[in-house]
Specification:
The protein has 132 residues and is mainly α. It has one domain. It has 4 helices and no strands.
Length: 132
């Protein structure tokens, strides 16, 4: 039974590595294609730069996963903030203004989540041990 568990873990790990490699490759290719589009148009705008930043963050997240076999939750949160920011920039101006408020609130909630996650490492927030 122990041997079959080891085999299964090995197979799952290989699938994970392959999937993460494909994600990295897709991000790398997307980054390169986006650069080519900017060069062809001879135009760079903020939405394009934010998309490049998203690609870089995804590549960084895959690198960290391959090195440590874990994903820090702040990576997807930062990517989400960047993606929503890009969405705001790309929106047409004739849309309902309340949509902008909801998107801004989403960014605020994600930013507060990042702060909360970082605060958990502060020593002053650690539970106090009983002193006798």
């Amino acid at each position: 039974m122990h041997s079959s568990n080891m085999k299964l873990e090995f197979i799952i790990r290989k699938i994970q590595i392959t999937a993460v490699f494909l994600i990295f490759l897709g991000s790398f290719l997307g980054f390169g294609l986006e650069i080519l589009k900017m060069v062809e148009k001879l135009e760079i705008n903020l939405a394009d730069l934010l998309l490049l930043f998203i690609y870089i963050e995804v590549m960084g997240m895959t690198r960290v996963y391959l090195l440590s076999e874990e994903i820090r939750i702040t990576y997807p949160l930062i990517i989400a903030i960047t993606a929503i920011s890009r969405l705001i920039i790309l929106q047409k101006k004739d849309l309902d203004p309340s949509i902008l408020i909801y998107e801004s609130l989403a960014i605020l909630i994600l930013a507060l989540a990042i702060i909360a996650l970082r605060l958990r490492y502060l020593k002053i927030l650690e539970p106090k041990k009983n002193q006798k």
